[in-house]
Amino acid sequence: MPTSLQDTTTLHNGVKMPWFGLGVFKVKEGSEVVESVKAAIKNGYKSIDTAAIYQNEEGVGQGIRESGVAREELFVTSKVWNADQGYESTLQAFETSLQKLGLDYLDLYLIHWPGQDKERFKATWKALEKLYKDGRVRAIGVSNFHVHHLEELLEDAEIKPMVNQVEYHPHLAQKELKSFCQNHGIQLEAWSPLKQGQLLDDPTINEIAQKYGKSAAQVILRWDLQNEVVTIPKSIKEHRIIENADIFDFELSHEDMEKIDGLNKDERVGSDPEVMNAGF
Fold first, then answer.
1. Domains of the chain by residue range
2. What is the residue-averaged pLDDT of the chain?
3. What distance in Å separates the CA atoms of residue 214 and residue 249, rounded to the nearest whole number?
4. Is 112 among the annotated ligand-binding positions?
């Protein structure tokens, strides 16, 4: 179990990825994202997760440069957007992301959504494999892939995805997907771990939080880690960025973990990967 914000999980290719990081979905380009990245790094975060579609890669890069922390100490993730899928267009999209970020390499590059055309995401994956073999990215993976998408990808993949980043929280525990990923050595990572704030009023979670002297958010994020799921909550407020990471000094009991597991109702706050951008 991770005991500090700097603790890492080892991906199947030996690369170490922090268990905990900052997500910047819906964080505005410009000073908002720059300050949020700087606040996170100043307070010990090493992992920053962005994507082409967030349109804030330039600000993320600026925040990294202004943080004063050496590039090699950080773990930076970005993702190829749906419209850029395909072999050549993915290679081009990667260059654009690197240029915007002002970096020489990425630590993790993901296919953002599977879409409905498996041949297309397979071609995208071939591009990611090339980037990986060329040393442009330290690890490659996918996002929002269900079990059947992973099975389809694995039919032809030369390199197995290292990470699958999905919507994951107590209302969407994705048990089958989690065990598939564990069995295949694919690290599961949670986006929207707090269900965009919707879980913070849950009575069960608040009752547990009171018992440990923690906030509802801290209990949920701790539940992620004890389930061996990497997590990247988003915040633009420094005090919340600090609070989110203050989860390494307590451990949820087996009984409390089970109570939170019992909240699952297979309910999403984000798009369903089966229908997301059906036409792309």
1. 8-199+227-251
2. 96
3. 10
4. yes
